[in-house]
């Protein structure tokens, strides 16, 4: 299949010759005017007929433009065609209004401004019109304006408009940079040309002249604010094509500044002005055309001004643009990788251009201030090198042959910048990009270059900054070709927020912050390891490489370990360090998967994990890598619950690796906990104190902190005095950002199902839930959900609503399907994701329990349905561990049969697998009731 990129390459016209918009195929302007004139003589009664003619022309024109977009792939052409269609409609209505109101049109000009003024419009874009009035505008002109606006609104178009004189335009543009920017891109659509020309003359003389420095500063500040609002990265996996970093607005900002500062009217003039080389101008055109194609397809597909390239529409846009699946990458992932490479090109262009302007402005600053800047920016040599110097606190080259003279300078420049804490001069970055062909195998094999690279990677100050600049300049991907394969690569799922290369750089940044002690308040245990780490260099290498094999057909952890074994010796690591890096890369998911998907109170879990880790030093290194990995996935992915699980796994594993673990110590810990609770309840009557302690099985004392045990004891005693069979209490924890709901209820086969359903019905994201069966047969449930409201009063009301849901379900006053019906209808559409359900039954992961692993597509009420189905299978849930990775769930249940034994028997495992897979296919199926006795349950999940 021909790709959209290839088609766009054929369709794009050379600037200056004028693009072939094929307007005659979009709308026949002559016929449109004739049709309008034919009905206009019928007076006010003609309005419906006029409106219908215009609607038909608009609809047919847009359909034709969409068909041409599919045919030639020209994104910029499509935007120009939509704009030209709009021009025809505006001119036709304006001429009609002139006749209806006996207005000659000489005292008003209808001017397109903003994006419309550029001559480009997306199908759902606003139309910005300026009605430029002379000082002697007649009532007919104002009536014509109203008539035109109302007809455009009735067409369903979003019209932004203003009616001003030339003096008003000039005055407002001087005060407001937004208005100035809109007028900068002005175009006469119809009306009085002399007014348009007069506005241009006064705008240039009274607004633009002598104020470019102020305008540049304002637009750069506006750009920075826009980037900060979107997360300050162009590698978000659901990017905003218009406003996001690397999107169309960045190109527009570049051209606004160029147009204002250099007085250019076209991209081609940027080459003549010395702003861009011809190659860079072609890159500008290619990026603009691609982004316009994506944006136009998005608007056509959704029928609205959709600017966010969401997961829901990415596959369809990829299909519209002609992308195909390749081994290891879906068509949507290939499309998005192309998108991010284009966004990177936009970043390169705007970054170099804007930085160069900043340099120019700094050098041209007048007076004493300018002299001080000049002295500060005076170039000075960097000690120990003749190839580089410092200019305005930025590293730059001393000649244009620096990299051809010695290719090691491709790496040395980043090492020097890191050592001297310098940023990069735009001229140096431009020279690097233009010389990348010199980064070859000889450089990759150069011992000094590899040593310098390790110095950059392990820089004690800010390794992420310099690795990021190296990546943006294209050096990192060429110096380590396997890294180049994952540059701009996205994974089509809702869990990973960034591209793979962005994720790796953020993971490196997290380790650097740990070294600086910046995360000690959040991560005290992990921070304490950093000073004890002897293998700092291998750990940095492992963090950089842990996902380097993403996008391949084979398992990325195993493939990554193989890459590490090949690369590490080249970088200068010895055999022991190489094997350590390879192990960390291969097992980088081991700790997070064990912590989130296994029962940490099961001793076999700990023994199996310890056997894989082998030494305490490797345990600490793996803990650091795991924390850096999870925190770099995206905002909100790391939370206190995951931190608690990882700390628990570490604390349980450490004594096994150091020889301090034995069954007797476990019994001693249980007895010590019972004694501690007894002392904590010393003010109680002896019988009450004994009853409180004897109410719980041993695992309760190993799992629940003493302060929580005291609170639970008071809760149980209070409700015992009331004779309450079912009770709840709620409390907030502002520090952890959590809210806790405690439930006391008779043991019930659907207890876990009802709890999960009650939370899902309220849209609560469960971070932790523990269900303990007590010795008297009752159950004590503790559910921790993510906080939604800032104020405790609001959050407590929400918690009470969740508790009420649970009570109504347990009390039989509410049916689960009815409670979840509204929430299901409001859930996010995940149909774009292909997550095939998978159920596996294991009898080797625990000595006493059967482990059921379930993977599949998430939805509201899923956990409730799964646990209900497990009840149907006559299985006793002993513990459950539920993790959500975006649209995908991984639920692990530790179960026995009703006799307390592992699940056995011919065909039993297959029946379990079939029944649970059916839950994904029949989300609201009827389930019957069987006696189940849930024991200890601890899990973390999202709203189900």
From TrEMBL:
Residues 1-383 are annotated as: Uridylyltransferase. GO terms for molecular function: [protein-PII] uridylyltransferase activity. It catalyses: [protein-PII]-L-tyrosine + UTP = [protein-PII]-uridylyl-L-tyrosine + diphosphate; [protein-PII]-uridylyl-L-tyrosine + H2O = [protein-PII]-L-tyrosine + UMP + H(+). Its EC number is 2.7.7.59, 3.1.4.-. Uridylyltransferase (UTase) activity is inhibited by glutamine, while glutamine activates uridylyl-removing (UR) activity. Residues 500-622 form the HD domain. InterPro entries: ACT-like_dom_sf, ACT_dom, HD/PDEase_dom, HD_domain, NT_sf, PII_UdlTrfase/GS_AdlTrfase, Polymerase_NTP_transf_dom, UTase/UR. It comes from the Bacteria. PANTHER family: BIFUNCTIONAL URIDYLYLTRANSFERASE/URIDYLYL-REMOVING ENZYME, BIFUNCTIONAL URIDYLYLTRANSFERASE_URIDYLYL-REMOVING ENZYME. Has four distinct domains: an N-terminal nucleotidyltransferase (NT) domain responsible for UTase activity, a central HD domain that encodes UR activity, and two C-terminal ACT domains that seem to have a role in glutamine sensing. This is Bifunctional uridylyltransferase/uridylyl-removing enzyme. It comes from Aureimonas populi.
């Amino acid at each position: 299949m021909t790709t959209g990129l290839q088609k766009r390459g054929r369709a794009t016209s050379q600037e200056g010759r004028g693009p072939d918009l094929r307007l005659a195929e979009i709308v026949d302007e002559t016929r449109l005017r004739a049709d309008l004139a034919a009905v206009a003589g019928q007076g006010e009664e003609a309005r419906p007929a006029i409106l219908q003619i215009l609607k038909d022309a608009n609809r047919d024109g847009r359909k034709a433009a969409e068909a041409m977009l599919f045919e030639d792939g020209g994104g910029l052409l499509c935007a120009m065609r939509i704009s030209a269609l709009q021009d025809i409609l505006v001119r036709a209505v304006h001429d009609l209004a002139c006749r209806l109101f006996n207005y000659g049109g000489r005292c008003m000009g209808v001017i397109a401004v903003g994006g419309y003024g550029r001559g480009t419009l997306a199908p759902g874009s606003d139309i910005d019109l300026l009605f430029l009035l002379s000082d002697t505008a007649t009532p007919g002109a104002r009536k014509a304006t109203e008539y035109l606006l109302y007809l455009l609104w009735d067409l369903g178009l979003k019209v932004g408009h203003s009616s001003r004189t030339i003096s008003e335009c000039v005055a407002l543009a001087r005060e407001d940079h937004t208005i100035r920017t809109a007028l900068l891109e002005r175009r006469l659509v119809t009306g009085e040309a002399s007014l348009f020309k007069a506005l241009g003359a006064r705008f240039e003389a009274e607004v633009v002249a002598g104020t470019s420095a102020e305008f540049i500063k304002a637009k750069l500040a506006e750009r920075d604010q826009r980037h900060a609002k979107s997360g300050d990265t162009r590698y978000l996996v659901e990017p905003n094509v218009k406003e996001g970093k690397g999107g169309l607005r960045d190109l527009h900002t570049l051209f606004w500044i160029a147009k204002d500062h250099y007085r250019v009217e076209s991209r081609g003039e940027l080459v003549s002005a010395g702003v861009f080389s011809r190659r860079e101008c072609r890159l500008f055109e290619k990026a603009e055309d691609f982004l316009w194609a994506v944006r136009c397809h998005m608007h056509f597909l959704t029928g609205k001004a959709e600017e966010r390239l969401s997961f829901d529409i990415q596959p369809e846009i990829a299909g519209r643009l002609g992308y195909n699946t390749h081994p290891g990458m879906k068509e949507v992932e290939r499309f998005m990788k192309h998108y991010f490479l284009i966004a990177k090109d936009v970043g390169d262009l705007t970054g170099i251009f804007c930085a160069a302007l900043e340099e120019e402005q700094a050098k041209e600053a007048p007076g004493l201030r300018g002299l001080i800047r000049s002295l500060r920016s005076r170039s000075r040599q960097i000690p120990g090198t003749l190839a580089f110097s410092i200019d305005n606190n930025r590293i730059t080259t001393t000649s244009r042959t620096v990299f051809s003279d010695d290719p090691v300078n491709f790496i040395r420049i980043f090492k020097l910048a890191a050592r001297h804490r310098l940023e990069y001069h735009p001229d140096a970055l431009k020279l690097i990009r233009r010389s990348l062909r010199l980064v070859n195998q000889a450089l990759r094999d150069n011992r000094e270059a590899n040593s310098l690279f390790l110095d950059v990677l392990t820089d004690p100050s800010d390794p992420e900054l310099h690795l990021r600049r190296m990546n943006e300049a294209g050096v990192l991907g060429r110096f380590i070709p396997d890294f180049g394969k994952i540059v701009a690569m996205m994974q089509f799922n809702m869990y990973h927020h960034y591209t793979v290369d962005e994720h790796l750089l953020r993971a490196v940044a997290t380790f650097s912050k740990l070294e600086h002690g910046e995360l000690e308040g959040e991560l005290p245990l992990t921070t304490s390891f950093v000073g004890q780490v002897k293998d700092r260099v291998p750990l940095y290498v492992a963090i950089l490489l842990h996902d380097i094999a993403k996008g391949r057909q084979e398992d990325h952890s195993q493939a990554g370990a193989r890459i590490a074994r090949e690369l590490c010796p080249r970088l200068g690591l010895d055999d022991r360090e190489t094997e350590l890096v390879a192990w960390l890369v291969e097992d980088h998911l081991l700790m997070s998967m064990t912590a989130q998907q296994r029962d940490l109170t099961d001793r076999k879990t700990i023994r199996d994990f310890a056997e894989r880790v082998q030494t305490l030093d490797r345990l600490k290194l793996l803990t650091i890598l795991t924390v850096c990995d999870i925190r770099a996935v995206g905002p909100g992915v790391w939370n206190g619950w995951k931190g608690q699980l990882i700390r628990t796994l570490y604390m349980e594993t450490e004594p096994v690796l150091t020889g301090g673990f034995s069954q007797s110590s476990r019994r001693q810990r249980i007895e010590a906990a019972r004694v501690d609770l007894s002392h904590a309840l010393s003010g109680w009557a002896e019988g009450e104190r004994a009853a409180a302690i004897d109410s719980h099985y041993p695992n309760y004392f190993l799992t629940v902190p003493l302060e929580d045990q005291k609170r639970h004891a008071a809760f149980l005693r209070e409700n015992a005095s009331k004779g309450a069979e079912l009770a709840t209490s709620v409390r907030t924890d502002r520090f952890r950002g959590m809210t806790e709901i405690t439930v006391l209820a008779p043991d019930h086969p659907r207890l876990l199902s009802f709890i999960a359903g009650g939370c899902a019905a309220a849209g609560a994201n469960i971070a932790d839930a523990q269900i303990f069966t007590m010795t008297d047969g009752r159950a004590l449930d503790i559910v921790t959900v993510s906080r939604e409201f800032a104020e405790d009063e609001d959050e407590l009301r929400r918690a009470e609503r969740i508790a009420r849901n649970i009570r109504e379900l347990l009390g039989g006053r509410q049916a689960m399907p009815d409670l979840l019906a509204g929430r299901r209808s409001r859930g996010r559409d995940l149909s774009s994701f292909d997550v095939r359900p998978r159920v596996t039954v294991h009898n080797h992961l625990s000595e006493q329990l059967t482990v059921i692993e379930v993977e599949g597509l998430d939805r509201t009420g899923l956990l409730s349905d799964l646990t209900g189905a497990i009840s149907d299978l006559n299985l006793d849930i002993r513990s459950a561990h539920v993790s959500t990775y975006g649209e995908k769930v991984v639920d692990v249940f530790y179960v026995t049969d009703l006799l307390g034994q592992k699940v056995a028997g011919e065909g039993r495992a297959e029946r379990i697998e079939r029944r649970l897979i059916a839950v994904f296919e029949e989300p609201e199926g009827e389930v019957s009731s069987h006696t189940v006795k849930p024991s200890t349950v601890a899990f973390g999940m999202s709203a189900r």
